[in-house]
Amino acid sequence: MYGLAIHGGAGSLPRAEMSSAQEARYRSGLDAALSRGYSILEAGGSSLDAVTAAIVQLEDDELFNAGRGAVFTFDGHHELDASIMEGTTLKAGAVSGLLHIRNPIELARAVMENSSHVMLAGVGAEDFALSRNFALVSRDYFSTAERWRQLERIRGGEAGLSPLTISHVGTVGAVALDARGGLAAGTSTGGMTGKRYNRIGDSPIIGAGTYADDRSCAVSATGHGEMFIRAAVAHDISARMRYGQRDLATAVREVVFGELKTLEGEGGVIAIDRQGAICMEFNSEGMFRACRSKGADAEIHIYRTD
């Protein structure tokens, strides 16, 4: 058995505000990423390679808040975060506060595979990238007109609008199980629109936004990062399976609708267990998500009922 699930952020535009053209573009972007990752699994490749490929595809798609299309900080810059983990050895890599790395998930993987560290940040992370022959891109590479308009709305103090309202949509992630039984998870984001003080959310934090353990499951999260950190969401789901004997769906529901709701946290997760069961659950209006398992057709969804 093998399978892959991806997400492009939770929260979503209210259904009434989503045009058919917008929806088609998002579905196309999700389909491209799912196909790219799944083809690797189908050919006998590793879960780690499938997760990396799917996220790179999403980072290169300006619709999503990761890589090109990342949101702006309050000062009009971009600060990118990512993490990746494989479940066989529990090795992990994470990067935060990147300014010039086109595909942060690839640098997170390099940290995991080519250093003795788990997380690198800012200038140090980019120095490490140069030591691994990563090419730097200009800051303008990440900019899009739509993300700039979103920042201006925040700066202008638009009534009823908060950074959380428009930042959930776009954080990307993937989880996979390969034919050898290996699990992997990864998450990448531009963070929160209008963020200040080098704020860091859950996406680059192992155990909060990303976790993988072959003994239980692989998880990638998206949503109100502070609450996902406080609840250690990704690890909590794994721990409920390992120590509490929950199945995947039960563990996910308990955390997403229990622990997160108690903290007034909004968002969701994608997860896959060692048997290949997939769960894509959220407590927000919607979550951009897609999945495919061996012998099954691809599924692509935005709202709870599409």
Notes on the protein architecture:
- It is a single chain.
- The protein starts with a strand and ends with a strand.
- The longest helix is centred in the N-terminal third of the chain and has 23 residues, at 20-42.
- It has a single domain (3-297), classed as Glutamine Phosphoribosylpyrophosphate, subunit 1, domain 1 (4-Layer Sandwich), CATH 3.60.20.30.
- It has 306 residues and is α+β, with helices and mostly antiparallel strands.
- The protein has 9 helices and 12 strands.
- It has an 8-stranded mixed sheet with strand order 4-3-2-6-5-1-11-12.
Spans with pLDDT under 50 lasting ≥5 residues? none
Q: Main sheet, how many strands, which sense, barrel?
A: 8 strands, mixed
Structural class: alpha+beta
Percent of residues in beta strands? 15-25%
β-strand number: 12
Total domains, how many?
Answer: 1
How many DSSP H or I helices?
9
Helix content: 25-40%
End-to-end separation in angstroms reads: 27 Å
Output the CATH class name.
Alpha Beta
What would the CATH topology be? Glutamine Phosphoribosylpyrophosphate, subunit 1, domain 1
Mean of all residue-level pLDDT scores: 94
Radius of gyration: 17 Å
CATH architecture: 4-Layer Sandwich
Looking at how many chains there are and whether they match, the oligomeric state comes to single chain
**Spatial strand arrangement across the major sheet:** 4-3-2-6-5-1-11-12
